[in-house]
Amino acid sequence: MSESVDADRDTTSSVRHMLLIASEFDRLYLEGEVPIITALSKRYSEADLGFVPDVDFASGGQQALGSIEGGGIDLALVFNPPADMPMGDLIERARAFSPAGKLAFLTRNKGVLDQEGEIDPSAFDSIFLMPEGIEIVPRIVQFMEDRSYLDDPDRDEGLSHIILLDIENMADRSHAIIAACDAVWARLPGIMGRKTALKEKIRAFERRIRVMDAIRYGGLEKALHRFGDRVSLVISDQAPIKGIPSLPPLELTEENVSDMLIPEDLVLKDEGVTELGSCGDLRGLERLLYSTRPSPDQWKSIRPWLISRTEFEIVRDMDAFLRDASQDWKAHLIDLIKERRRSGGSGSVMDFTRSAQVKDEFTRIGSGQLGGKGRGLSFLKGLAMSLDRGKYSNLTIKVPRTVVLATDVFDQFLKNNGLDPEKLKDETDERIVDLFLRSDLPSTIIGDIRHFADIVRNPVIIRSSSLLEDALFQPFAGIYASVMLSNSGHELDRRFKHISMGIKYVYASTFLKRARAYLESTGNHNADEKMAAVIQEVVGNTHGELYYPDLSGVGRSYDYWPFPTCRSEDGTVSLAVGLGKMIVDGGATFKFCPVHPRSSFLGGGRECLDRTQRRFYALKFSPTVRSNEFGEDVQIVLEDLSRAEEDGVLDSLVSTYSCENDRTYPGCGRDGPRIVDFAPILQMKRFPMAEVMKDILDASQRSLGTPVEIEFAMNIFDDGENAELYLLQLRSMRGRDRRSLADLDSVPEDEIVLRCGRTMGNGEFAFNDIIMVKGRELEGRSADALVKEIGKLNKEVSSSGRKHLLIGPGRWGSCDPWLGIPVAWNDISAVGVMVERPVGDRMIDPSQGSHFFQNISSLRLGYLTLDAEEDGSALWSALDDIPKAYESDRVMHLRSERGVRVLIDGSGSRAVMQIPGGQKV
Amino acid sequence: MAEKGFNAYKMAQDQFDAVAEKLELDQASRNLLREPLREYHFSIPVRMDDGTYRVFKGFRVQHNDARGPCKGGIRFHPQETADTVRALAMWMTWKCAVADIPLGGGKGGVICDPHDLSMREQEGICRGWVRQVYQNVGPFKDVPAPDVMTSGQHMLWMLDEYEKLSGGKYPGFITGKPVGMGGSLGRTEATGYGVIYHTREALKDLEMDISKTTAAVQGFGNVAQYTIELYNQYGGTVKCVSCWNQQEKKAYTFVKEEGIYLKELRSITDRYGSIDFDKAKAMGYERIPGDDWIEMNVDILIPAALENSITASNVDRIDKRVKLVSEGANGPTTPEADSVLSSRKIMVIPDFLANAGGVTCSYFEQVQCNMNYYWSRDEVLGKLDEKMTQAFHGVLDLTKHRNIPLRESAYMIAISRVAEACHLRGWI
Lengths: 921, 428
Hints:
By secondary structure, chain A is α/β, with parallel strands linked by helices. In chain A, 33% of the residues lie in helices and 22% in strands.
């Protein structure tokens, strides 16, 4: 059974594993002509579902109970009573082992049922009298599936048609079951034939016509009442009921039944008389609707036909649409059919089409894979659609208009242009970018890209979506390029050119130094990598020459260092005004816990003035992009927060500090410094941001089975009352380990150099090399020179195949040189543990939303953030005895033969640094 | 060229009359559009290599220029007739109109057989042709292009002569020039790629995944090869190609069930487009009669070689699996065969729509030349794809609304656009 089929197992009513309980003798009789497995295989291969039910055999009650106890049996079929135990015992114990499994009884001899006390028919889910041949077994499987489906309100979508049986005679009933099940089965190829994705086939299979005994619902009348117009046929030995298609059970055949069901071809008639035309599929219906003028009543004949074709989404949408009456139902139905036809062949991701005018859609160009980001977005789109929209009255949740260039486009691009990954290894970054920008995109996609450039007039971001990004422990956050384009200008040619260049640049980034260093450090090779590219409309609003969303955020379902009143499982959300670059690059942001949104991580009063966001990122409209300057940040600018206030976006996002009473007041209503604390949203609850984030993080974590991180952005409408929240990216993340891999208590006191209470990672790390930035001060202006120096030392350590311990002030990898040293990943690729010291007296919070942080956590590096007290009590002088391999004004490289150790308790967020062997400190 | 008893011009006029009737065109429009606006018939004296002089008969027919300068090729053929040129000029008008490019239709020719002429003698014909009509053609009047037995070299001679006579540089006078001499990137592949852009859109409407389809191709010239190239890139499998063998003077079909490999077939094809039998066999190709391409068990038939390939006599040999015919060649399906295809619900993308990629890219070349600024290949093919797709969906929409075949819709759209332009200009 394939993996994907297994994955669907819990969500379908299909019998995947049955147990036949029959004596050896009975089994010989049963399988005399055709083995049961062969009969099932033949039937299921016709349906092309990717599975055939497994069959186990048990020759007696004891053996049967052993199999049932082992689990996984969906249906146990008893053929005649077992010899080794009373039937009642078998039933009772089987039910105890598997309450959800179905039990059915099959016999050739009706007399068995009449033996007093031997068989209690009501103890079984169903009883069948066997006609000639083994063929009834696959029909029993189908019939029992129908029962499971209709019994389970979570599975029954309330639309499938039903054939009701109202037959007293056991033999007639069994014949009717065979005829009805066969008529239903015969229709499956026509319904599922064009569906190529297995998921689609299984869904259609689930929505087939169901066959059920009326007696199960208290008789025919009650069953009709319960199922209403879902009943398409009654097979009854009683007099027919007016208005309901009925058949007597005598001389029943598959053809009789089929003739009474909704015809496979839809015939549209003008006022029920003149035939307007007919169709056998959705394409035909679309044409019929175009070329005829159906009257409103005709929906009544189209609806059951659509149900019989398992097109439930269209029916539901139309039902809701028609509740508003008097609208153009024909145009709406054509739109729905078009959309359905596009998505029909490729599962949930629709192929890009140039005829679609739908704004918020997620589509694919190419037929390959979507890559990590693409898959995440596909999931988020489904999540956004499934959320209860009524719950968040003034906040709409969406995914921005997105098109993914699948991995086969990347392959084609490399092939057509003769770009060999092996040869690119020796080229410089500049040369690689130049080579890629001068190459041609595949002719198969350029028309689609051009159309995208034509219809999208807002800025776009082009992001990498690599296959390796799928791996939980290799997030590749920020390793490959993203290109943001203002996409402004009236000339389509220019916009098309820029988007094309952006795609090529993202492709090139697969082979640049930064990516190669990361691949090496994670034990991957360029040859393993395949790149999809996500082209997405940027969320934001135009403010003069700038474009930015009101706020951006990163939510994480697990908080490594929760606020004292919160738990790690409550999660954490980082927010910033403007583009999310401020968060993912480790700039100043606002953090809150979605369960306790009122708790502030900024601190209170004057303290928060030091920590609050003061600048924000925005996209600057620029009609020209020079190819030699083409890079990911080429059109992004850093602006002062006062600009956002001038643009009128701050009122819902900030508080104002009053120095008179050392308090903050939500909004911009008074003079004073602005504190970006999102109080109007989180405290005054202008929007249910915390509730939404909690729901989204919970649902995502449940689906992925690991903690998750979600990037998002939000636009508040001009009325200030309504907003749209766009989900931008989903990644899995690593939670804290349950068990510590290091024994901190075993370290002798006199060997400990420092202790830390805010850590990540787990285990014991030993180093001979320490790269240490001197002091606790940051000099933003000379940051570039310092980064180069660190990069050089890192290269030396890396070339000798060792790892180093990195110590310095502030947040490593921050984009803001006043918050930390702005190293990129390739500057510190050989790091094993990094230690962050306070900046002056100020402790810099680790930025959990940053790409840098994501890499640290996923690669299981050690990470220690010292507060002022811990830093003050650390015995830094102990390092003075270690020989210096290099020293400058700002940085030194210590190389110790004895080495130093860092022990991190991954379960408790504690760590110590040890100089083994004891020392005078 | 001219088949006995067959008059292409009459056929073109009959087609026009039938559509005009459906469009309920007024009589004046019918009178104007069923004949060319202008015709030039002239003599071209050329001094031959042996010192003698020969006079060649030349033509230029401008069918209609209401939508823009005329556009059409120049043919060198010994059996050229004025009626053939008239018909082809009219079809060019419809082709430009259905592709919605701002050009009219024209065609030209010289009665000659280049096989019997030296390059110098051919140059003399080219320069002589231009001398006779240079005042009536030009980048803003009538833009010639290569056609049967003329090439980029012929176009450059004509351009040179035109510029000499006009006293300036006018690269937009003529198209089909080599890249670097005013030619456009993407021109070589444009016709074949255009066929596949239409095919791709048709398959979407048929709800068929192009990467899972198979095709049989008649022909292995420029159009067929680039058709196969792009179709392969979309993941489609070509099971056979049929091509002419110059030595045996007959066609053969080369079959590979798992799909032909374009690169290897190109490597064993000579300059006449004939595939080497022995090498093909060694590569695993089966050779069958040329006509048998039509009965292959495939989803798509692409006739990209000759006119009258699918006829009443062979249409019944088409496999029931076939859902689409994309006409890469001009006039490959006879009207009788067309009706049979229609009754079998096989979609047919008509020739003047399917192979409009060539003239569309010629138009792009002309635009670039007039600006003297040249686009990247991405830009050219991106625009081509956009134009072709828009044209196809325009035709498909009418087909859906009127429940008529694509060919009929395409003619209706083209003729109504030209008639509308004539009305708006106040001609009628």
